[in-house]
Specification:
Elements (H helix, E strand, L loop, with lengths): L22 E8 L2 H7 L8 H17 L3 E7 L2 E6 L10 H18 L1 H4 L11 E8 L2 H30 L5 H8 L4 H12 L8 H5 L1 E7 L30 E6 L6 H6 L6
Antiparallel strand pairs: 1-3, 1-4, 2-3, 2-5, 5-6
Helix pairs in contact: 2-3, 5-6, 5-7
The structure holds adenosine-5'-triphosphate (2 copies) and magnesium ion (5 copies).
One magnesium ion binds next to loops.
């Protein structure tokens, strides 16, 4: 260990290990994406290119960290659930938050041209990140229900709002005024009677957000071949690394609030 007379300053760093045996939810959110989406010509209310780019960046994080089993994305945010027994970076909070936020952000920028080939980045986007600990499965379920309920409320509002502006010819001020005091039923009614839109028929990606689940895949049976170790292993099913169960990631746009999801993917709350 380096032993200069200056090394004592290291001792000023505070330990920040997160409590053991608690679920960790890591959430990041685009910084000032109201402006970022304006300056990069996002289609309103939902720019599918931007949502797919968010999904891609999230998938890169899931691929890099096998202790994340579930992720949920909407708008400019993504939430990731880490196993409660994870020992990632010795559970150091700032290490986890900063590393994951930066990996997501660099992937967002790296893959930007794939999703926005005609829109050059005008300035580098950034994301904030945080971790919240939850003691039991109940809070974890309620957390994801909370985010998905938020997706629903925002998307219903934005869908009617932009229909009033883009198809109804209202100004944004008028559209806000039209919607003031309306409840969910009124918004469905405006959409249906004025614009012939059935809200429930809108793409589930917009209504439900994006859900990544990690699923254990049964290991492919070992294949005996004449291949020597020096030959490329093309066509031969890869064996998982020792002690690691092979997994795949599935992208869904499904309900996270009812019991069905949690019964089907019960292993996510282990
Ligand atoms: P990590 O980057 O793995 O999250 P870290 O930032 O503590 O952890 P490094 O970035 O590898 O570790 O190293 C920071 C520097 O601090 C290193 O050059 C190392 O020599 C020095 N250092 C780390 N721990 C101590 C210590 N206990 N006493 C003195 N110097 C240390
Ligand atoms: P903050 O820095 O506090 O998060 P913000 O401007 O990012 O501020 P948010 O509440 O995070 O505010 O909202 C993000 C905004 O980004 C949305 O309100 C919306 O205007 C825009 N936005 C994000 N994703 C999309 C998308 N896929 N399509 C259209 N607009 C989007
Ligand atoms: Mg915000
Ligand atoms: Mg934001
Ligand atoms: Mg947001
Ligand atoms: Mg370091
Ligand atoms: Mg270093």
């Amino acid at each position: 260990m380096a032993g200069s007379k200056f090394a004592y300053v290291k001792k000023f760093e505070l330990p920040d290990a997160l409590l053991p045996n608690m679920f960790m939810v890591f959430r990041l959110d685009g910084h000032s994406f109201h402006r970022f989406s304006d300056e990069h010509e996002f289609v309103k209310p939902n720019d599918v290119r931007a949502l797919r780019l968010m999904d891609h960046a999230a998938k890169s994080v899931l691929e890099a960290y096998s202790d994340i089993g579930l992720a949920f994305g909407e708008s400019d945010e993504y939430s990731f659930l880490l196993r409660k027994s994870t020992t990632l970076y010795n559970r150091r909070e700032s290490k986890i938050v900063s590393t994951l936020t930066s990996l997501f952000t660099s992937n967002y920028v790296f893959h930007w041209p794939t999703y926005f080939p005609d829109v050059p980045l005008r300035y580098p986007p950034s994301f904030d990140g945080r971790i919240v600990l939850y003691p039991s499965q109940r809070e974890v379920r309620d957390y994801f229900a909370w985010r998905q309920a938020d997706t629903h409320i925002n998307n219903l509002y934005n869908t009617v709002f932009w229909a009033l502006v883009q198809q109804g010819g209202q100004t944004t001020t008028e559209a806000h005024a039209t919607l003031r005091g309306t409840v969910s039923k009124d918004k469905h009614e405006i959409l249906f009677s004025h614009f012939g839109m059935n809200y429930d028929k809108i793409d589930p990606r917009y209504r439900k957000g994006s859900v990544f689940v990690r699923i254990e895949t049964p290991e492919a049976p070992e294949v005996t071949t004449e291949a020597t170790s020096s030959q490329p292993s093309e066509g031969i099913p890869k064996k998982a690394k020792k002690g690691k169960v092979p997994t795949t990631l599935e992208l869904l746009h499904c309900d996270l609030i009812r019991d069905d999801f949690w019964e089907k993917y019960a292993h996510l709350l282990d």
